[in-house]
Amino acid sequence: MQGGTKGTFMLDYDPLEGYRDAQAYDLEDGDYVADVPLTEQLARTLGGPLLDLACGTGTMALRLAAQGYPVTGLDIVPEMIEWASQKAAAQGISVEWVVADARTFHLQKQFSFIYMLGNAFQHFLTRADHKALLARVREHLRPEGCFLFVTRNPTLRNLFEARFAEPQKYTMEDGTQLIAAEQQHYDPITQIQHYTFHNQWLYPTGQQKEQTTRTALRYVFPQEMEALLFYNGFNIQACYGNWQQEPLTATSPSMIYVCQKRL
User: Fold this and answer.
1) What stretches of the chain adopt beta strand conformation (E)?
2) pLDDT (tens digit per residue) in 124-133
């Protein structure tokens, strides 16, 4: 997951609760590789050290560390970092793991390349959250370094159409089945989309477990993002509408930015 929002926006639920089950998170999202080519390209160009902000279960951090880069993975959810650490140990890969809030961390060092993937930027719900996050990025980014991040483009499809028409089914290594369903509601005043997730686990023993969690995602519009980055001390080096590095258009699924801090 990811960076964290609790405490700066008044929600009547914990938006991080659904990320406590790190293995289930990997089951649903661990095979995503569309962001790999551009991230690896920038890592090769910029060199290490690398900072994976809101690293989740460490999928990208582990991939890059395995290629020899010194990588720090930071996330606010302890369960994510614990599972990432276990995966690193099992693979014999060295990564520095940090449990911290992306708005307030201080690592006392700078990085050539900082990246935030998985649309984690959307978990920062307010202007104050954005300002704090970008200040921490500036603090930890070398003068010649770059910051890569992605957020969903606020298209009508992303805002109002369900991602999945039917519940999704997954099978864990031990045979447990996970059935995941979700609902969403967009508030145009706050630009926040509220998700409700219904998960059901069917265990090989015949036992069952159900859980309902919620989260909140903030949408930032393209012109708003340009101003947000400019007034927080960044220049946009490149902007793409997808991971194939095609231009951002009205129908692009994503907004992907490569930024440098303004000196």
Assistant:
1) 50-53, 71-75, 96-99, 111-116, 141-152, 168-171, 177-187, 192-202, 208-218, 234-240, 254-261
2) 999 999 999 9
